[in-house]
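User: For a reading group we're discussing how well predicted structures match intuition. Take N-acetyltransferase domain-containing protein. Before you show the prediction, I'll give you the sequence so everyone sees exactly what went in.
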Amino acid sequence: DCEKTSFLKELSKVQSIRGLGSFLKGRLFEESTRKDKRKEIISFKEHGGRIKAAFVRGKCIGIILAGNYYLFPRLRNFNIFPPDFDSVFLGCIYVISEYRGIGVAKRLLVEIEKDLIKDKVKSIESIGKRLNDDMDEEEYENSPLIPFKFLIKNGFCIKKNDPLFPLLRLDLKSIVSDFAESKTLLGKIALKKYIYAYKPIFLEI
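Assistant: Thanks. Here is the predicted 3D structure of N-acetyltransferase domain-containing protein, as structure tokens, for the group to look at:
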């Protein structure tokens, strides 16, 4: 059937024992969480996924998800698949509309970067989204994929180009010295002035 054909087609792209392990883990994760979204989040954490969130007065205003690439099954739908097996994949940064443009997304990224550096992870990869004629601005803004320009601005470089959804990579070794010299200066970046009662609190979920 179609599902079996798809499985064999994807399996044929595996080029190493390590890659085979990641492929099978991804399939197992996808199958075990197919019909239960709550179970999907729990399983995401149990399989090493990282979740950070920003809160204001008890309200979640932003979230970031990262982990092994096989924790993001929809990656297979993109032309750039597969990413590097040894990199952590940054799957999503989402901030609700009224808190965009004040540095929340940047801080969420920095919180993940600091944890990965402590864990001696060498690199992060992510898919960037580019605005195009087939996507209106509202759809673009509300997509959980990360804007291409945001990734470039924060040190990512193109690894596999694509007109709509390129794969980008950040070498964490290149910023380790900055963290050491400035006592994690990136983590202390001030939010732009904005009128609200409380500054966001960044927590691991």
